[in-house]
User: Fold this.
Amino acid sequence: MIYREKSQKVELIGNYVEHIQRSANISELITELSYERRYSYFYGLKDSAYPSLLQHRIKTDSIMRILGKSKSITIKDYKNYTFLDSLPAIRGLIDSCKTTTNNIIDYYTNAIFRLNTLESEIPANTFLKPIYQDLIAQRILAQMITYFGIIRTNVFNVLYTKKDMSETLYETVEVYKVYKTYEKELFQKAAPFVIHDFNVIKKASDLQIGEVYLDSLFNTPKNLSSSDANWWWKISGNSMTALRNQQLALWKSVDIRMKEIYQQEKDSKNETLVFLLIAILLVTFFVYYAVSHIHKLLSELKHAATKISKGASGLQLKKMSGDIIGDLADCIIDIDKNNLMIAQTANQIGKGNFTVKVKLRSEEDLLGISIKRMKNALQEYASQKDKIQKETEDLVYRRDEFFSIASHELKTPVTSLKAYTQLMLMDMKATEDSQQKDMLERMDTQINKLTALINNLLDTSKINNGHFVYNKELFSLKDLITETIDGMSINLSDHEIIFNSSSTAKIYADRDRIGQVIYNFLTNAMKYASEDKRIIVTLKEEKNMVVCTVKDFGKGIVVDEQKRIFERFYRISGHNLNTFPGLGLGLFICKEIIQKHHGKIGLESEKGKGSTFHFELPIEKVMN
Ligand code: ADP
Assistant:
């Protein structure tokens, strides 16, 4: 619709442009005809104006050719009703001097007059197109009425007064000629039905009779009578009424159609408005839909990208439309797939599967290249590690072998040494040599220490090869602790062991091994004691467990070391190995024994303030 309106506007302007051009041409033609009139008049007066006349005739002809090409209804066949169709004939008469100067002037004046009336024509525009022809026909009819009116009055005047007849009639003839050109113009320009109506009216009314009368009046002057005047007045009046009726009918039809056109345009304007509103609504809806759809897609992509940026993978991103957003989604899907692939590859490499292939996405794939390098480095490292591990395992195996064999081999001679030392000590008692006796006792103490070390080594190798056996029995833990403390009293020197027990619970366990744990706790408490030589042993029950604690006020152990002292061969660095002999096996064996009895072992300690070692074992419910 907008296009249609624009086209109409362009057509309208085009018509005005053409109209202006045509008017300019008509004006030029009028100017040239004026020159022709002047030089023809001078030529008629035998003046030597012929060359100028010919010059202007050429110009006149060229302008007429231009106008003849116009397709506009305004000047359709214009020569027929502007006297110009008889221009060649007039020129012939002028050239052969067969006409009067008056005739020359009349001819050119009439032609110029008629051309002037054409110029005032309104240009056809796109809206008026359907009624334009009738509008022009109506205007021509109006002109005919005007001129017929002049003729009617003049002729009546001449008939009635019979005065100045020749002069008045002469002027009226010219007016009549003009009137007839309008009739011709009507035949050229009006629609067939208008011409048909006009012919009917002409025949039916007195118009034809009037015209016949006028023709005879102007061609053959006769005696005029005043009865003619009355007759003329009557028939010319009827003719004018007939012409006016046709003009009014045409005018009415034009008016009705004009109103229709106006209504159509008004409706079309409203239609355009509705159409525009609908279009705006549709466009708004579409834009809203498109924007929200794009927003939704972009949100999904953002969500996916955020997840990827946080390291997630395996996103369930749907395939999107084939536009730029779809391409973006495909890229994110690709990134996700690649991430997943790289993660799986890295995972495989992490698990030691070095056969997995790292596929590079392009030459610029820095991540892929790095993972490839990492894989090679890890492969190298893993093979080195395997080698070292094998060597270490071999070493450990050989160490354990060595300790096993050494402890076995040492056990027998040390046992013999112990026996002989004991025998010698018994002999000493008899001889009462105090110096030798003291030496032998020291030897015995050292053999005891050596035995303890060998026993620890033996136990450790048994634990290693699974030969550490437990002979379980039901016994009172309190009794075992009392016995162990009593057994150690000889070697106590200035240590003081305080035992508090609130439990007489019995446990089902290997008595010797549990005794070994208590002994170890006490030995360590003594070994790592400070000036405060007190050792507080407590036995209590907690739920269905019996808990034994051995508290000393010695050096204490820092937290980091606390976790490690139960490891095999672990000894706290910085301790003077000479002052505190040992192999770092005692607590390892203790842990092993307690865990095998479904118990727990641990400690609380603070550097410089002492330690509290504890173990707990399940109480055996004795049925009485
Ligand atoms: P060791 O025979 O060397 O004493 P253990 O396994 O019995 O071996 O003890 C491991 C380490 O724990 C010791 O070397 C010692 O440093 C530390 N330790 C054990 N008991 C105590 C304690 N009561 N006070 C301070 N340190 C202790």
User: Anything to note?
Assistant: The beta strands are 472-476, 496-501, 506-510, 534-542, 545-552, 600-606, 610-618. The mean pLDDT is 87. The pocket of adenosine-5'-diphosphate is lined by residues 520, 524-525, 528, 552, 554-555, 557, 565, 571-572, 575, 582-588, 611 (CB under 6 Å). The radius of gyration is 70 Å.
